[in-house]
Design brief:
The chain is built from nine helices and seven strands, in the order αβαβαβαβαβαβααβα. It is α/β, with parallel strands linked by helices and 263 residues long. The relative contact order is 0.14. It binds NADP nicotinamide-adenine-dinucleotide phosphate. NADP nicotinamide-adenine-dinucleotide phosphate binds next to helix 2.
């Protein structure tokens, strides 16, 4: 039977993907979506037990392998790339999703809060991409473009009330870095795009949802009155990484119910 039009446009079956921070929150949603769509998905995060749990849970739907890794240092990024090189000849999809945040009053905001966030949210996507270039280039061709999706935040697109200074700077920086990389990798057949999430329920945002009243209030204020879900997060990454997104690079899409563009 010939491939359906839908599968030829949106299919990611057989593609090899690496997702940082794929063990919970938005990363886990994207990993689940990619696995269910038939990609072979590597997830990486620091905690060994979270890695094993994710691998076991997602293996019920398809191909998922977890690699414990700390990407907050260049050595950690290189180690992860070397580990993947030992297992695969090529990489088709890289999702730089792992992130951390820090909120503190402007007067008290200190260097540790700056370095910790910038290292994971902006520096790691750059050095992990650099370390994985040989595998990404091996997987890319005019007909089957590679896909790097950098996960930023609506907080990197417009100011917020959260006093998360290093976070907004790192996310805005990663957004612009993505356009630069899109330019530099365009002729290597690798697309670089940005997913900028709005509210998703996760460990990172748990403090905003930790009582019913807070959750009600935040949802009443939220565009579309809800948080993001699996289809929202995975659907956008699948769009960027399939033929559907082949002609799109250097683009930022807010995945936020329209909060940035309509409120
Ligand atoms: N949730 C939202 O509403 C929201 C909104 C806008 C943007 N975002 C962005 O979306 C991404 C995912 O956020 P989330 O809410 O899903 O966060 P989360 O629930 O806190 O998950 C973060 C993931 O990153 C991993 N991670 C953290 N530091 C790491 C490191 N040094 N090395 C490797 N892995 C590391 C964590 O696993 P380990 O702890 O095991 O390392 C975890 O899997 C982040 O980039 C975040 O900034 C989220």
């Amino acid at each position: 039977m010939s491939e359906s039009f839908y599968e030829s446009v949106f299919g990611v079956r057989g593609k090899i993907a690496l997702l940082t921070g794929g063990t919970r929150g938005i990363g886990l949603l994207i990993a689940e979506g990619l696995v269910k769509a038939g990609a072979k998905v590597y997830v990486a995060s620091r905690k060994e037990d979270a890695c094993r749990e994710t691998e076991a849970a997602l293996s019920a739907f398809g191909d998922c392998i977890a690699i414990p890794a700390d990407i907050s240092t260049i050595e950690g990024c290189e180690k992860l790339a070397t580990e993947l090189e030992g297992r695969e000849q090529a990489l088709n999809i890289l999702v730089n999703n792992a992130g951390v945040t820090w909120s503190e009053e402007l007067g008290q905001f200190h260097e540790k809060a700056w370095d910790k966030v910038v290292d994971v949210d902006m520096k790691a996507p750059f050095f992990l991409t650099q370390s994985l270039l040989p595998l990404l280039r091996n997987g890319a061709s005019a007909d089957n473009r590679g896909s790097i999706v950098n996960v930023t935040s609506v907080n990197g697109l417009r100011p917020t009330t959260l006093h998360n200074y290093s976070y907004v700077a790192a996310k805005a920086g990663l957004g612009h870095l993505s356009r630069q990389l899109a330019r530099d990798l365009r002729d290597d057949y690798i697309n670089v795009n940005v997913m900028a999430p709005g509210f998703f329920k996760s460990k990172m945002t748990a403090v905003l949802f930790d009582t019913e009243e807070k959750e009600k209030e935040i949802m009443e204020r939220a565009a579309m009155n809800r948080a993001g879900n699996l289809e929202d997060a995975a659907g956008l990454v699948i769009y960027f990484s399939s033929k559907a997104g082949a002609f799109v690079t250097g683009e930022t899409i807010a995945c936020d119910g329209g909060s940035v563009n309509t409120t």
